[in-house]
Design goal:
Layout: H1 3-19, E1 38-44, H2 51-58, H3 61-64, E2 67-73, H4 81-85, E3 91-95, H5 97-104, E4 109-117, E5 123-127, E6 143-146, H6 152-163, E7 172-175, H7 183-188, E8 194-198, H8 201-209, E9 212-216, E10 226-233, H9 234-239, H10 241-260, H11 262-272, H12 277-280, H13 295-307, H14 316-320, H15 323-329
Parallel strand pairs: 1-2, 1-3, 6-7, 6-8
Antiparallel strand pairs: 3-10, 4-10, 5-8, 5-9
Helix pairs in contact: 1-10, 2-10, 2-11, 10-11, 13-15
Amino acid sequence: MTTRNFRVMSAVFILTIFVLAGCGAAGSPATTAPAGDADITIAAVPSADLASVYIAQDDGFFAKEGLRVNLVKVPSSQAIITEQLAGKIDLCAGAYTPYISAEAAGKRFRILAEGSVMTAGTRLLLVPKGSRLTSLGQLAGKTIGMNATNSIGTLLVRATLAQNGVNPDSVHLVTDPKGFTTMASTLAKGTWAAAFFGEPFATQGEEEYGESSLADLDQGATSNLPVSGYIATQSWLEKNPNTAAAFVRAIQAAQLDADTNPNAARDALAESDSLPQIVTDVMAIPNFPVGAVDATRIQQEALDMIQFGLLSKKYTSLVDSGSLVKDLIG
């Protein structure tokens, strides 16, 4: 183990004890026993928000806990929910939004650990080089490219438009099935009037294609919004409490590394997504929370989903009471 890894693991050891209290199966005591040999498949959305999962893989935090991890890159967490419910995927590293919707609809998921909290520059609306669009009001009737349907991007775009006096229903949101990885080149061709991006792909669009920011989506009601986390089905958690506990220990160590050393996150993304240094050196980095899942943050996202039309108002009482978020956190 490297000196850096030893220092991170020592610092996080005490902290993870109370984190793991939320990782046992419902109604049973949590366990901190090692997982032993365990193979898990994690679906990960390529983005700066999930740098920790790459750090945990590359720097041996998973291996230390006896975990053999197969990382599968997916365009969005929305795209993987069905496979996760079918038991084909163990964990998802992705946005909370579709899981809040699924939980409200009666599915059973558990957030094992937080992934990221949005900061300035980490979520942008970009327009092509030479675009005549200079304000959000000009987007009415236009098409906006998205990496996913009814996910965090949808929430952020609708909220930003509404808070700037633009009817969210006046724009056309079109999903690119390949996700962020090809969207900058598609936008550059003029396929869309604008496109939603997370880092590092927002910076890639700016640096490689000359695209420019029309709006930073870290504003108003969605400022400092929790974006992503590490999520399992309740049934998987009940069957694999030791593996879940080992995963949390590993990811918390990686979170602490990413939060205290931004270059660790930059290096991990450069390697995982084969990004040039010109992108990783200047891209915005989110916050990487360490510790127990913050119910207040997740609750704010659920409330925003009700307010901006991503969650049916029939779930208002379930959200307002805190029951929905309580079930997700456990």
